[in-house]
Design goal:
Elements (H helix, E strand, L loop, with lengths): L2 H15 L3 E3 L6 E3 L13 H48 L13 E3 L6 E5 L9 E5 L10 H11 L13
Antiparallel strand pairs: 1-2, 3-4, 4-5
C-alpha cells in the first residue's frame, strides 16, 4: 500500500469512527459517514465493488451494441436507398401499370412535390372533366408535409388558375 493510500484509509477510518455526517452532492441528504461506504481510488468496499463491476459490464455491453449498430447502419442505409430507388421507378411506371384508373395520356408528370397532374378526359373525350393532383406511393411510404398541404389546399378548394403574360 502506497503512502497516499495509507493516508486516505486513515482519514476514512477517522470519518467512519467519529460522529461525522456527509451531505450528498446529488440530493442534499445527510448521512452518517460510517454508512456511506467511503473509499480511495479503486480500493472499493464490497458494496461499491459490486456496483462498479456492474457498471463496467454495462459499459462493455453498450460498447458491443454500438459496434453492432455501426455495422448495421450501412446495411439499413442500403435497404432504404434501394426502396427509395424502387419507389422512384414505380412513380414513373404507374400510369402504364394495370389497375391505374386514369388514361396515361391524361397524365402530366411533375414528380416533385407531387407526381402527376391528371387532366381526366383530355386525350379521349377532348374535354377536361376533372383535374387530379396525384402522388404515387408504395410500401409504407406516406405523404410528406408539403404533399399533405397540397392535399389540404385541394380539399379546401384553394386552387386557382392564373395567366402570366410575358412582357415584350
Amino acid at each position: 500500500m502506497n503512502p497516499a493510500q495509507k493516508e486516505a484509509n486513515k482519514v476514512i477510518k477517522n470519518l467512519e469512527s467519529g460522529g461525522f455526517f456527509i451531505d450528498c452532492p446529488c440530493c442534499g441528504e445527510s448521512m452518517n459517514a460510517k454508512e456511506s461506504n467511503l473509499f480511495f481510488l479503486d480500493d472499493f468496499p464490497p458494496a461499491a465493488k459490486t456496483i462498479y463491476d456492474q457498471k463496467v459490464k454495462d459499459l462493455k455491453d453498450r460498447k458491443e451494441q454500438l459496434k453492432n449498430r455501426k455495422i448495421e447502419i450501412p446495411q439499413v442505409s442500403q435497404l432504404v436507398s434501394r426502396a427509395v430507388n424502387v419507389g422512384h421507378i414505380l412513380e414513373r411506371m404507374a400510369p402504364a401499370m394495370k389497375g391505374f384508373r386514369f388514361d396515361r395520356e391524361d397524365c402530366r408528370s411533375l414528380f416533385d412535390p407531387i407526381d402527376y397532374v391528371v387532366f381526366q378526359g383530355m386525350s379521349n373525350k377532348k374535354k377536361i372533366e376533372n383535374i387530379f393532383f396525384m402522388d404515387i406511393k408504395s410500401g409504407n411510404a406516406r405523404l410528406n408535409n408539403v404533399q399533405r398541404e397540397i392535399k389540404e389546399a385541394v380539399s379546401s378548394n384553394n386552387v386557382n388558375f392564373d395567366i402570366y403574360e410575358v412582357p415584350e
